[in-house]
Amino acid sequence: MLHRLGDLVCRRARWVLAATGILLAAAAVIGVGAFGKLESGGFDDPNSASTQAAERINTQFGGQNNLVFLVTAAHGTVDSPDVHAAGLALTDALSARTRQIDRVTSYWTSQAPALVSKDARQGLILMHLTGGVNGTTKALIADYTGSHPRADLGPGIDGHAISVLAGGDAAANVEVTGQVAKSLALAEGVAIPLILILLLFAFGSVVAALLPLAVGGIAILAAFAELDLLGSVTDISIYAISLTTQLGLGLGIDYALLVVSRFREELAAGKDVREAVARTTATAGRTVLFSATTVAVALTSLMIFPQYFLKSFAYAGIVVAVIAAASTVLVIPALLSVLGRRVNAGRLPWAASGRGDASPMWRRVAQGATRRPVLAAVPVLAILLTAASPLLGVTFGTPDQTVLRTGVSSRQVSDAIDAGFSGNAATTIEIVTTGPVPSSAANAAYAQRISRLPGVVRVDSSVGTFADGQAAQADPGDAQLGRPAAQSYSAVITAQPASGAAQQLVRDIRALPGPGGVETLVGGRTAALIDAKGSIGSRLPWALLIIVAATFVLLFLFTGSVIQPVRALVVNGLSLSAAVGVMTWIFQDGHLISWLDATPRPMDTSMTVLLLVITFGLSMDYEVFLTSRVKELHDQGADTNTAVAEGLARTGRIVSTAAGLLAVTFFAFGPSTVSFLQMLGLGAGLAVLLDATLVRGVLVPAVTGLLGERIWYSPARLRRVHRRFGITEAGATVTGEPDTGYSQLARVDNG
Fold it and tell me: Do residues 247 and 321 touch, judged by C-beta distance below 8 A?
């Protein structure tokens, strides 16, 4: 079928290219608005107790604080007359913006001790923004922050008496979104020119080097259009843009390298252009389609998680894989048909003849590994296991201001509150009842019980403020925390929100009986972290089961063996574990992290899952590239060791080149100002390099050398299944060509 498709595309090449141009123009028009529709959140489980608590607080109590203004006195203290007047005027100005802000809590109106710093030079204004926070926050920050006078503070108010910095989740979201856009522009600006230079060295000709970028560009534009359309009907993460770019370029490079190299090989073997295109589509095209299927299946597993952050990557990644594969078997053959032997045009002075020659180096590596498998495998296993060892102490968290660099406003506010205030009033533990509390006494007793827990500074409620089980004198409570249908409590704590102590405190509060027997919901950043880890942890085994089962079935249909899929899963798991272990060593344990201008913090739960899934899909790319060629040679008569050596010789250069180019696209996120993007980029780049060299070059031939022909084993019943449903080897059957000489080669190698 693919042979016939390649022949048809060759005959209708200009029609295919014209239709592609029209579709690309439409995708560009649609996709240009994608950035404006995407969200910066999506890390929380929408069905969790913490999310339910946030929704109840938002609808009944004016919402949780999501924007913080840190106000610093230019001289004196926050109670100096001019500072007090400016702080009070700023509070009034914010309170007047009722269409954007539905709750304001300020030191200058409440005199709450938790809202003033220990040295009395800084005060806090806490707010809850209504509706979508990004646009509102951006305008608010522009209007009221900085150290310049603000005209709308009123006549006679000295705006220079105070300076204002914005923080909190809403400000962090705005800044992260802006930083992602800058990081993406920087990555593209660095990666694409460098990739083009490397492609010129890889292909030796200008025309051939541009073809992988064509596939990547098509996949990226199509995915941008998809994200724009999806962003109109559901929540889509802004971070999906980065995956779209990286994966589109990566798969475009992988697939186009394979196809163009096979086309040049067929031309060098004496085929005319039409037959070379058809045969390339039948062989390399089949490998590309199978590879894209494995990538898409791996990404599909992300849909099992409730967080739209992870679902977004599934939506974007699946479309990228499908479009990249479709472009490779339709657009690239059409371009090759038009170009013909001019694919080698613009040859560079140092370039070879353009033939698809095998790599003697990779052949020697494979032959050495198959002849001495234990000697070859042991050092590689030692390296991979050592690299993976930091995973023994891994801890997980969710993104907060610490993913940003220290010079960013929301990070400065977070650091200042941690260092200078008694308890973090901006990141409290929020508790809300699911029904009315029967009496004020029950209400007060419950707040007292919470205030006695270790690490709680105070508890605010509608019946008073409590610390160490005692009510504060002359404090009637915050009437905004009480409603006829429910009560809300706000616990200020000493521990960092992501710390183990804070997480234990949330568990302790959840274990307390509610006031008067009424059920409670616990929210806030720490509760959301616990719920996110529980949500991902409970579904991760199912996601892994989907990946493992689907990969096993696909590789069995591809090879007819039950050993090959197991071998692929094990060796790929080793390379992924090594890459994530190194990222843990850097981003959690803090080694070398100063080079990245980042802050050590727990590994991001969602981003670590994403790293594993993406790199597994990409490693299966190289698995399919090699296994496809090995099976083709084995089906043509070569023994297993010879087939592996020749297969690696034919694909090793392609795989290592593709991995190097793909690593460049990922490493380009190293200078990002968002640490979890740095982690994803560096981790994915390292994983593909390890897989293309140590795993594909050494471990796979070593395992083959140990097992020999047994690596093709399958029970009789499954062999019958494969004969009926297996994926036919195009290279052996499509053209009906006889044995091409590999059986004779095998007999020569075997003496």
Answer: yes
Domain that holds residue 415: 409-529
- Please check whether residues 601 and 721 belong to one and the same domain: yes
Q: Decide which of 425 and 327 is more confident.
A: 327
Task: Let me know: does 166 contact 67? Beta carbons within 8 Å.
Answer: yes
Q: Element (H or E) spanning 465, and its range?
A: strand 464-467
Distances in Å between the Cα of 91 and the Cα atoms of 110, 429, 574 are 11, 24, 56
pLDDT per position as a tens digit, 252-301: 888 888 888 888 888 888 888 889 889 888 888 888 888 888 888 888 99
pLDDT of res. 743 = 38
User: Tokens 């991995």 map to which residue?
Assistant: 659
- Is residue 173 a contact partner of residue 43, using CB atoms and an 8 Å limit? no
Is pLDDT above 50 for 207? yes
**Residue 677 and residue 549 share a domain:** yes
Q: Which residues pair with 127 in a beta bridge?
A: 67, 104
Distance CA 62, CA 60 (A): 6
Higher pLDDT, 156 or 558: 558
Band of pLDDT at residue 729, cut at 50, 70 and 90: very low
Contact between 166 and 409 (Cβ < 8 Å): yes
Question: 3-class SS at 348?
Answer: coil
Distances (CA, A) of 693 to 622, 653, 683: 10, 10, 16
Strands 396-397, 603-604: parallel, antiparallel or unpaired by DSSP?
parallel
Structure tokens at 41: 């959140």
Backbone angles phi, psi at 537, to 5 degrees: -60, -40
Residues 571 and 719 in one domain: yes
Q: How big is the chain by its Cα radius of gyration, in Å?
A: 30
Same domain, 632 and 715: yes
> Locate tokens 């019943």: which residue?
717
Sign of CA dihedral 497, 503, 505, 511: positive
Query: How many other CB atoms are there within 10 angstroms of residue 431's CB atom?
Result: 29
| Same domain membership, residue 506 and residue 636 | no
Contact (CB, 8 A) for 542 and 468: no
Question: Looking at the DSSP assignment, which residues form a beta bridge with residue 493?
Answer: 456
- Among 217-221, 280-284, 743-747, which is the least confidently predicted range? 743-747
Query: Cα dihedral angle (230, 233, 236, 240), rounded to 10 degrees?
Result: 10
Is 197 within the bounds of a domain? no
Separation CA 296–CA 300 (nearest Å): 6
Q: CA torsion sign, 544 to 549 to 550 to 555?
A: positive
pLDDT surpasses 90 at 77: yes
**All residues at 6 or more sequence positions from 19 whose CB lies less than 8 Å from its CB, including other chains:** none
Separation between Cα atoms, residue 309 and residue 676, nearest integer Å = 13
Task: Return the H-helix or E-strand segment holding 104.
Answer: strand 101-106
CA 169/CA 129 separation, integer angstroms: 11
Angle of CA points 185, 241, 623, to nearest 5°: 105
Query: In terms of Cα–Cα distance, which of 502, 352, 514 is closest to 429?
Result: 502
Instruction: Give helix then strand counts, H and E, for the chain.
Output: 27, 13
Output the CA torsion sign for 466, 471, 472, 475.
positive
3-state secondary structure of 132: coil
Question: Over the stretch 321-340, which tens digit does the pLDDT of each residue have?
Answer: 888 888 889 999 999 998 88
Share of the chain above pLDDT 90, in %: 28
The pLDDT, as a whole number, for residue 73 is 92
Dihedrals phi, psi of 141, to nearest 5 degrees? -65, -45
Spatial neighbors of 574 by CB under 8 A, at least 6 apart, are: 381, 384, 385, 388, 695, 699
β partners of residue 123: 71, 116
Whichever domain contains 367, its CATH number is 1.20.1640.10
What is the residue type of 232?
A: S
Query: Distance of alpha carbon 131 from its chain centroid, rounded?
Result: 26
Using left for φ > 0, alpha for ψ between -120 and 50, and beta otherwise, residue 590 falls in left
Q: Residue 470 belongs to a domain with what CATH number?
A: 3.30.70
